[in-house]
Amino acid sequence: MTNLHQNLAQLFGFNTFRPGQEPAITSLLAGQHTLVVMPTGAGKSLIYQYAAMCLPSPAVTLVISPLIALMKDQVDSLQQQAIPATYINSALPTAEQSRRLQAAVQGQFRLIYVAPERLRSVPFQQALQRMTIGLLAIDEAHCISQWGHDFRPDYRRIAQARAEMGHPLTAALTATATTLVQNDIVELLAIPDAQRIVTGFNRPNLSFEVCYAPDTATKLQHLMQLLTEQAHTAGTAIIYTGTRRDAVEVARFISDTVGIQANYYHAGLDSDERTAIQDAFLQGKLPVIVATNAFGMGIDRPDVRMVVHFNMPGTLEAYYQEAGRAGRDGHPARAVLLYAPQDRILQQWFIENSTATFQDLQHLYRTLARSGQSQVMIAVDQLARQTNLDAVKVRTGLAQLERARMLRQTGDEGGQMQVSLEPWDNNAVTAVTSALEEYCAHRQRQLDQMTDYAEADACRRRIVLRYFSDRGAAEAPRCCDNCMVQQAPPPDPQDVNTLSRAERGALVILDAVKRLGHGVGRRRLAEMLKGSHSKDMTSTYTRQTYYGRFAEFSRNRIEQMIDQLVLHGYLKIVGGDIPVLKLSHQGQAALTARAAIPLTIPGTDDIDDGGKRKRYAHSSTTQETEALFRQGLQPNDIAVQRGLTEATIFQHLAALIGAGRLALTEVVSADVIAQVQAVITEVGDLSRLAPLKERLPASISYDELRCVVEDARRQRKTV
Ligand code: ADP
Ligand code: MG
Question: From CA 425, how far away is CA 17, in angstroms rounded?
Answer without folding.
Answer: 55
